[in-house]
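INFO batch 0412 | record 1 of 1 | parsing
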Amino acid sequence: MQLLSSYTKPNSSKVQFTIGKIDAGMAVLLTNENQQIEFPSILLPQKVGVGSVVSVNVFKDVDEEAERSVRFDELQEAIYKIYGTNEPDPPVLKMRSITQTFVALEWAPLNLYQSDYKKLVLLKDNARLPIVLPNTLNSANSHPFVKVSGLDVDHEYTFKLVLETSSGVYESNDLVVRTRTLDNLKGICVCFGNFESAFVAQNSNEESDQAEGSKRKENPQIAKLKRTIDRIGAKWTEKITVDVTHLVCTIPGGLNYELASVYNIPVVKPEWLYTCESEKKLQPSLNYYLS
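INFO prediction complete | emitting tokens
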């Protein structure tokens, strides 16, 4: 622009040039003072060539500049509101259940706002555990729990969940837990498998009852087991979950039995639970496995 300084006016500038050369999309323009500048040939009028005289009028478009400035500020503000105001919330770790040798942990729904999920890492006493945690945000929120096994009896541990995102790393609260003593049976959570005559029809005409959808009485063995569970302060559930410690049954087979085998849940006879109550202490499962 220094070459045109003699033509510059406060708000606009109109300069005449002579086309000296047009080559490869660029034109060489000559001023009356024999100064030359390069100019995109695509911006030249049609039907001009070497020797043609062209006038270039340059002025500052104040209105357009102001409008673009406003649009830029609005875009910046919108980007800031979407990506700059809300950081991911740190994860909140809670204890779901605990026994003598394992703990089930769960976390509150993860809120990352506009950040991208990378991974979750679980620490035990500040050491990373080799446990596979959900690898997507959807799976982390739909299955927000993990089971940590192989713990010592009556021992204190500190757990922490680390969330890695595109916005940084966020740590949960320190969760201090203590595994139960052998005489504390409240950590037992039993699921039931198949028993002989699992259900007994209320009426003698069983087929008629089934057709009418009538209620059925519970198997006496299961009812007795539930009363035992209530007395020792333990829990029972209809389905296999991460909290289940034992599957109690007398006959192999069924969905719960298959799931227990997949998740390495001990499958024991009812005598195991009765012995736990009579001895007032957790019994080894090995002696009561369903063969």
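INFO post-check: Residues 107 and 204 are 50 Å apart (CA to CA).
INFO record closed
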